[in-house]
Amino acid sequence: MDLTIAAILGLDGLTNGAIYALVALALVLVFSVTRIIFIPQGEFVAFGALTLASLQMGKVPGTVWLLLLLAVAAAVLDLVQALRERWRASRLFFSLLQTLSFPCVVAPLAPSFVQQQHSLVVQVGVTLAIVTCTGPLLYRLAYRALSGASVLTLLIVSVGVHFALTGIGLVFFGAEGYRTPAFWEARFDAGPLSFTGQTLIIFGASAALIVALFVFFERTLTGKALRATSVNRTGARLMGISGDAAGSMSFTMAAFIGALSGLLISPSTTIYYDTGFLIGLKGFVAAVFGGLGSFPMALAGALGVGLVESFGSFWASAFKEVIVFTVILPVLLWRSFVDPHHEEH
């Protein structure tokens, strides 16, 4: 291996690492706020890419029907809870309106929308809106009632949600793989390296999102409320911060980050209904590097995972996944020494 090959592999590793960084940041965000090891994060990645691919082909994305089904199920739960707790009619009305309004508007308009073949920018915006809205509904259905459960219980639920979403993805999108068009077809040469426009967009979008998250958590009241919840859930609740609202917000942000990650990576790799699982696992390896609690460490771990994967594929392409996931063993051993242990009660 010479320096030219090493530079090319390094660029490829950093590009993939930028995607894994977004997934890792979403995992850290969800775990910090809700104590949920969110295994289905990768499904948001796959659903984002497959939704855009369906729009490109003039088909109604399966995520439209998934969104509608989740909204109806959440509305039924709200109705049952309202009858049990005897909510006021106005409270029930606004709750149902908030849950059903967007899905009930999107579902009837979807067939006519896909026939008009809008620009790529419009399709990206619609994709992000649809997938992002599934996040809080998923939290409402699968996790909100278990907010006080142990981490192990929440992990078991996450495994079940992952398998359910994978099966739904197979039903709605089929077993075929899809790629989406690049956002920018330009190519730039810098010595031995060749930068594509899509690579620059990946770096730019990842950096912009990381900066936006920093500003959100440091400068906004909602961001500070999420930080307070991640530091001390009981103390945040005593200060009037709703744990359910914080959980719903964290899932909304995780769904948006996952969908954006899928849109960024799909022009360079074929996405299948179950592709998100591997991407999510690599993001999890990066998140574990930071102890599922540090955003900067998760970012560094993601770049490291991308580089290990890139160089591992050069030396032993058949074992690149094994090499990446083996990295988690020394990381776990290291975390076990540097982090204090305590029994969960």
Detailed description of the structure:
This protein is an all-alpha fold. The chain has a domain at 26-184 and 195-274. It contains 14 helices and 2 strands, in the order H-H-H-H-H-H-E-E-H-H-H-H-H-H-H-H. A two-stranded antiparallel sheet has the order 1-2. Helix 1 (3-34) crosses helix 8, helix 5 packs antiparallel against helix 10 (243-265) and helix 11 (275-289) crosses helix 12 (295-315).
Observed structural traits:
345 residues, mainly alpha, 2 strands, 2% strand
How would the blueprint of this fold be written?
Blueprint: H1 3-34, H2 41-56, H3 62-85, H4 89-115, H5 120-142, H6 151-173, E1 187-190, E2 193-196, H7 197-219, H8 221-231, H9 233-238, H10 243-265, H11 275-289, H12 295-315, H13 320-326, H14 328-338
Antiparallel strand pairs: 1-2
Secondary structural class: mainly alpha
Order of helices and strands: HHHHHHEEHHHHHHHH
Shape: globular
Low-confidence stretches: none
User: If helices are DSSP runs of H or I spanning 4 or more residues, what is the number of helices?
Assistant: 14
Strand order of the largest sheet: 1-2
Average of per-residue pLDDT values: 86
**Biggest sheet statistics:** 2 strands, antiparallel
For the termini, the CA-CA separation is 52 Å
Annotation, overall tally of beta strands: 2
Instruction: Please bin the fraction of helical residues.
Output: over 70%
